[in-house]
Amino acid sequence: MNRFLSPVVLEGRHVRLEPLEAGHVEGLAAAAADGELHRLWYTSVPAPGAVAAYVEDFRERQAQGEALPFAVRLRADGAIVGHTAICNADGRHRRLEIGYTWYAGRAQRSAVNTETKLLLLRHAFATLGCVRVEFRTHWFNHRSREAIAKLGARQEGVLRSHQTLADGSLRDTVVFSIIEPEWPAVRRHLEFRLESHA
What we know:
With about 200 residues, this protein is of the alpha+beta class.
């Protein structure tokens, strides 16, 4: 087990990030159906009927120390509205990636993503002592690229033909990062954005 990725609950005003477990399947399936993001060919969002296998896959990755997946729960009504994960973590070099993030349609363009990323970034920089956090997305996922940039992450480049997708196509991966000296300003920026949702 990668102790760098020990399970933890992260809680804010709007969301609670819970270590992913089988009990989240029903809520995640409902979230995946809201907005049908799985129909976008450039995302890794599971179809509602594939959520159980998706959760099992991430739980196996967690057991092997490869990822720390979370279910995103709204504090207001207790509903599960999405998924996110810490992955590609390297404790020796104090870096990790935040990815596999998706939300139900009802949670998009709300405080959910801002607070989710604030909680994960705070955990990465303040608790784990990271010097670098990465975000990666498909070249064609313009909404994701815009959302990552709005967090305060900087685009570093594009890894061309970086991954082979399930349909056999090649993914050009856009890489963003936040580094330790940038974290105080990014934190304040995210806190300011959350204040507008109060």
